[in-house]
Amino acid sequence: MMLSRPALRMNHDLPRIGLNMSLERPAGCASGEAMAPLAYIDAVSGAGGVALCIPPYDDINVVRTILPLLDGFLFIGGRDYLPQRYGGHTQPEHELVDARRDRFDIALAEIILEETDLPVLGICGGHQLLAIARGGALIQDIRTEWVTPQGKAALPHAKDERRGPEATSFLHALTLRENSLVAQATGSTPATGLFVNSFHHQAVRPESVGDGLCASAWSADGVIEALEPTPDSDWSQSGRFLLGVQWHPERMPDQSPQRRLFRSFIDAAAGRRP
Question: Which domains does the chain show, CATH number per domain?
């Protein structure tokens, strides 16, 4: 059943964008702390929206009272989601999100995708979350598990694989599918391509991207860099903005394609309002 939307907003209000949050448990704070990096909030604000951070409630049904107030949702990055969600192998605990966040984020993504028509943007871990919520699976460590179609080693996607200035400044080119949402949203074409940053050691498995989703951008080593609805899906037929990107556009505010990506998302959110 589609969640109903109350008429609570004046037309001049800015689009309200929900954000999920990380959950950390520092020493001396057993209950944990919910946080969201300001870069996401600034990117939403800079594109004309208002960010509303949604902590990982213990009762997922609470969000059903919140979602009708929103115009869009941004799933942020973070540590790795628990591998048992998609049949993966055990990982070190320090690599994983808190179990409470994992439960909340998966349930939240399922509700948003299945029970609402909200525009959605998933970034890095949020991109992977969209795949997991739709039954997809992940490459758990690109460096040790992925070999390019040409039999070569993968690019240094993770920050800890790089040294010196490249640790944070590394950029690489993407190949884009023609007429894809990611190309339109960034104002790019297959001919121009798109340069992005990279701060991830996992990726969506090409053979298991999730029901109703398809890959639409790839790095030179064949790693999936964007997900969006398949052309024949109900989401595509309705024109829903639903996009996952593996890079961090919020960390590239000086790059026009990345600013345009956020504007495209916020414009889609604004377009839902009466």
Answer: 16-270 (3.40.50.880)
